[in-house]
Amino acid sequence: MAKLKTNKATKKRLRITGAKKIIKRKSGQDHFNTRETGKITRNKRRDSEINKSIKKTIKILLPYS
Asked: pTM score > 0.90 for this model?
């Protein structure tokens, strides 16, 4: 059987922890952040876990993780 290709865009945006959680960065961190409230700015610093319902799709895009 041939090797499966990893989707590079997905690999750059997501990471899988040892407990098989899928982690992503919050969006909208590049610019125009001065207009945001302090609460929103602080929340953007945190990573968030992706919903388990798309875990099967992520497994197809990242077959060797």
From this structure: no
